[in-house]
Amino acid sequence: MDHTDHRLLALLSRDGRASVSTLAATLGVTRATVRARMTRLREAGELLGFRAVLKSDLADRPVRGIILIEIEGTGADRVLRTIAKMPEVEAVHSTHGRWDLVAELGADTLETLDVTLNRIRRIDGISRSETNLYLSTRRG
Question: Rounded CA gap, 129 and 136, in Å?
Answer without folding.
Answer: 22
